[in-house]
Amino acid sequence: MELRVLQYFIEVAREGSITGAARTLHISQPTLSKQLKELEAELGCKLFVRGNYNVRLTEEGILLRKRAEDILDMTDRTIEEFQSLNDVTGGEVRIGCAESELIHHLAGAIKDFRLQYPGLRFHITSGDTRVVVNDLEQGLSDFAVIVEPPDLTRYNYLSLPGGDTWGLLMRTDNPLAQKTEIWPPDLKGVPLISSPQSLRVDLPRWCGEAVDQLNMVGTVNLFSNGSVYLKAGLGCILVLYRLADVGP
C-alpha cells in the first residue's frame, strides 16, 4: 500500500467525486479510477459506492479514511522530525489538552521556550481525556494535559500546580443567579448541560449518588457552542469557572 495511493483515496473521500479529486490532484480520471480499484483489490473490499455523479464511502472506506489520515499524519511528523534534527532554533511539538484552567501553565512554558527557540511551532488539539490519551498512544501527540489520574504503569507525568473550579453558568433571569454558592440540592429539577467527561467523571465526584437525580438534558464538548443553547433557554451549563470568563 503506497502513501501516494492513500493520498489519492483521501482526496476522493474529501471531494466525494473522482472527477473533482482528479482535477485537484492534477492526474487523469482513468488513472485515479485504476489506482482506487487496485487499492480495493489489495484490501479485498469495496471502499466506495459509486453513483452517477459522486461516490460515498462504505463502512470499510470510513475505517480506511481514519487509518489513512493517521498514517499520513505520522509520515508528515516523521519527516518534520528528521528535518528539524539540525534545526537548533526550534521544531514541531504537538500537545493534546483536556479542558482545564491549568493550561495557562503550559502557555507560559511555551512562551518562555520560544524566547530561547524562536523556530518552535506548537500544535494544540483539544478534547476529553480519552481523546488526548488515544492520540498520545498512537504517537500523534508528544504529550498530553489530562484532568483524570494518569495510568502510572504506562506514562511519566508531572503535576500542574493548582486545581480547577467548577461553576454554573446561567441566564441572569434564572433564580439561581442570586446565589453565591451552588450545592447539589440546588440543582434538583434544573435542566443541565455539561461536557461528556464532566458527566462521566467530575459530577459523580461532586454529587456522589445524587448525580442520578440531576436533570441532564444534553452534553457539549465546546463551551462556545454550549453558550448558544444557554442563551436559548435550554438549560444551565456546568463549566470551568475561568473558562466561562466570569471570574476576575
Structure described in brief:
With 248 residues, the chain is of the alpha/beta class.
How does this structure look, described?
- Helices cover 42% and strands 17% of the residues.
- The longest helix has 25 residues, at 59-83.
- The mean pLDDT is 83.
- With 248 residues, it is α/β, with parallel strands linked by helices.
- The protein has helices spanning 3-15, 18-25, 29-43, 59-83, 103-116, 129-137, 196-207, 223-231, and strands at 48-50, 55-57, 90-97, 119-126, 143-145, 166-169, 191-194, 215-219, 236-240.
- It has 8 helices and 9 strands.
- The strands form 3 sheets. The protein has a 4-stranded mixed sheet.
- SSE pattern: HHHEEHEHEHEEEHEHE
Low-confidence stretches: none
The amount of helix comes to: 40-55%
Q: What is the tally of helical segments?
A: 8
SSE-based structural type: alpha/beta
Major sheet characteristics: 4 strands, mixed
Query: Strand order of the main beta sheet, please?
Result: 6-9-7-8
The whole-angstrom Rg is 24 Å
**Alpha-carbon distance between the two ends:** 55 Å
The whole-number mean of residue pLDDT values reads 83
By DSSP, the count of extended strands is: 9
Rough outline: globular
How much of the sequence lies in strands comes to 15-25%
